[in-house]
Amino acid sequence: MAAIRYLVGLIVLAALLGSNSLSSRAAGVGAHVAAASQVEIAMFQPYTGADASFGPEMTAGCEPAAYLINRAGGVLGRHLKCTAVDTRGDPADAVPAAQQLVATASNLLGVLGPSSDEALATLPIFQRSAIPAFPDSGQAQLDHSTNPYMWRVTPADDVKGYAMAVWAHLRHFSRAAAIFGNDIGSQGMVPTLQRGFAKLGGHIVINEKLVLDQSSYRTEIERMLAAKPQVILSELDPQSSATFLAELQQLHGLNIPYIGTEVTLQAQWYQAVSRAIGKASVARIVTGVQYYTPTGGPAWKVYNAALKPAGQKQATWNTDPYSMSYYDSVNVMALAATAAKSIDPKRYNSWIPRVVSAVRGATTVYSLAQGKSALQHGKRIRYIGAAGPLTFNQYHNSVGQFEAARFGNNGSVILAKALPQSMVSALTH
């Protein structure tokens, strides 16, 4: 099978990720059930552009899952391959990429992604082609989705906005600056951040929508300082964050605490910002809010051990909840296909909730190998993953708990506090 490069503006970072572009085939989507030596998971995510950090984070979850699945005999005897597809974080690029993907991939098991940047534009394409997709999109429009092929395992951005408000409230801040990028994903949580913070007695004193990757944010910083915030609530890409905080350091010093999202806790963000303001300053002022995944337990140990042999940096990704969620999503697809005895997405899609639901008599499993063995013995299974248990509601959403984390002086991510789920939930009603 000859590798192809998409001629729709896609850039696939094969050298970085150890993944090849999707193989060209004459068959279309209708050939999903054709006998093949391998099946593919498309990692449909930005690998370039403002949200380029999303792609490697997804790869760090998919590759360990594929490594373990293949070591256990593959998906119904077929080798599983993770394939990077660069959406550039832009619907204009992502739509033709999705169309090309479904038109040419004859052995596509499912899709990891899309992100918030392109989810609303591309999920209907995967739905029409009956391909399961596991978006990490946080958009509230998906909270009540009727798409039978969408399975969202990460919290919505609107809930994330409430979680950021809770963390700021718990730290006794009442005046906050909202400094968010102008990208779709970042803006998706601003309304609930404002509502949640107000419900808790706080006030957003300034709301700045920053154009990403500018050479200076001096004007915006001066406006922010004039509003006298006690804390900065933010989501910006690594380079924009580095520029913003470096200029803030020059103009005012770094005396205002900075609360970000999971983007803030990613390795690329830390590398860019720590070079700009120093590791000690990052450790002192920065915390990030992300959904909570305990770094422990049987499934996490399996995931953690697989990172290095799968070509991923263990210390970078073993505490990343999104990488864990991608790892779990691949396992769920593989287990559902195994339970359904079919790699045809139309046939195995309905089995997805069955392999994760808590039902009487189900055998708890923590890996594809365990699940495969139990299924071969005629047992009902419940997969609990590295990110914890999954429970899909009627809209195919699974929402977990949130945590606040910070950086150590060496760049390690350290849990600061697991946020009370009751406080976050109370703001959503």
- Which residue ranges are poorly predicted, with pLDDT under 50 across at least 5 consecutive positions? 1-35
Which oligomerization state do the chains in this entry correspond to?
single chain
Assign the structural class, choosing from mainly alpha, mainly beta, alpha/beta, alpha+beta, or little secondary structure: alpha/beta
Task: Specify the number of helices.
Answer: 17
| Overall pLDDT score | 90
Overall radius of gyration: 21 Å
Strand content: 15-25%
Indicate the percent of residues in helices.
25-40%
Number of strands: 14
Q: Biggest sheet, in brief?
A: 7 strands, mixed
Tell me, what's the shape? globular
> Strand arrangement, largest sheet?
6-5-7-8-9-13-14
Task: Write a structural description.
The structure is a single chain. With 429 residues, the chain is α/β, with parallel strands linked by helices. The chain is 40% helix and 17% strand. It has 17 helices and 14 strands. The protein has helices at 14-17, 54-71, 91-104, 119-128, 157-170, 184-187, 190-199, 218-226, 238-251, 267-277, 279-285, 298-307, 314-317, 321-340, 345-348, 368-376, 421-428, and strands at 38-45, 79-86, 108-112, 133-134, 175-181, 203-210, 231-235, 258-260, 286-291, 363-365, 381-385, 388-389, 402-407, 413-418. The strands form 3 sheets. A 7-stranded mixed beta sheet has the order 6-5-7-8-9-13-14, sandwiched between helices. The protein has a 4-stranded parallel beta sheet with strand order 2-1-3-4. The radius of gyration is 21 Å and the shape is globular. It starts with 13 loop residues before the first helix and ends with a helix.
